[in-house]
């Protein structure tokens, strides 16, 4: 007998067949098949009407003329066609004459193109509203707000700092070093300077034992982010939870910390799973938009690492149709062996952190201990130059893994490595 598993890949899917005698288990969020009584708009509207820890947004907007809504870029699956119109309506309910700027929190990513904006927000909103891409690399755009717990200056986009009211939308998912996405991340790294983000993402911070998926308390990276959000006076957030179809299944509004934590607690109860250890682990980065480039893929990889036995083979399935995702990342990944890269990064002082080295750090750590087969659209020569094994298909990757670990090797499959939080066994 064979078991069939669907793996998200770009905007499509891959069907994989695994012999049932080899299949150790399939890890999916416990509530992945849960149905919800409310439609997506109603879930968001209900949350807007019942904020956590703050007044309603329409009340906060009264008398506020310069309003900024921070939203996510093309690398995130925020359903802004649903959420953004409801946010705009709620603000204008409190102040119809407010001047509203929608700031796209790119962090250190490239800015969104007009086509990407249209695809994300809809042509109607793009033509009517004022959308601005954040640019982390233009030093003239920032205002220093103070010092963060890490010792870094808190440099935030002046568009945010000069606003009368700052609002953010996003979604909450597991994050491999910030604990969870959403909430405070809209401000930092979303609208922060390159230098500010680099120190927050330093080798020391990434290596901290609490800088892991599903952990906020004691997480130095989260502490910096939350402090920055408070300094920037982020007054109201709308964060949603999504199912495997990228549909809204829950929404949380209100105070930056309280509403975000409520959503994180709910997600942990839904997405937390016990590890199934195996000789071969197959994972993905959840398909589009997070598998557009390799830079984002430590997220899906982190779940696989929690299930990998010593010396296991990991198969990472990610389209990477947008390439590697960053010039520094691409260069560094080919500058030495995984051990050489890790040693160099760990010896880099926080203030000398190079943008994107944090993903090199996580890949290097994994490649030192495991053979990783990459299934993507990247060229074979590039894949091998970065220390991965190459496979043109998932089937081919699995056959390579069997050749390494034996035909009776047990296989754990994580169809969406970003959607689960694999709990560490005590």
Can I get a quick summary?
This protein has 16 helices and 20 strands.
Give a verbal description of the structure:
This protein has helices at residues 40-49, 57-60, 80-94, 114-121, 123-128, 158-161, 194-200, 203-207, 220-231, 256-271, 298-305, 327-332, 338-346, 357-369, 380-385, 394-405; strands at residues 2-9, 12-19, 23-26, 66-72, 99-105, 130-133, 142-147, 153-157, 165-171, 174-175, 179-180, 234-242, 248-254, 272-273, 278-284, 308-317, 371-375, 389-391, 411-414, 421-422. The chain is α/β, with parallel strands linked by helices and 426 residues long. The protein has a 6-stranded parallel beta sheet with strand order 3-19-15-16-17-18, sandwiched between helices. It is globular, with a radius of gyration of 21 Å.
Structural domain count:
2
Strand content: 25-35%
Largest sheet at a glance?
Answer: 6 strands, parallel
Helix content: 25-40%
Mean pLDDT value: 94
CATH C-level class of the largest domain is Alpha Beta
Output the strand order for the largest sheet: 3-19-15-16-17-18
Rg is 21 Å
Provide the CATH superfamily of the largest domain. Answer: LarA, N-terminal domain
Secondary-structure-derived class: alpha/beta
| Architecture (CATH level 2) name of the largest domain | 3-Layer(aba) Sandwich
Count every beta strand, where a strand is a DSSP E run of 2 or more residues: 20
The DSSP helix count reads 16
Distance between the termini: 35 Å
Per the CATH scheme, the topology name of the largest domain is Rossmann fold
* Stretches with pLDDT under 50, minimum 5 residues: none
Shape: globular
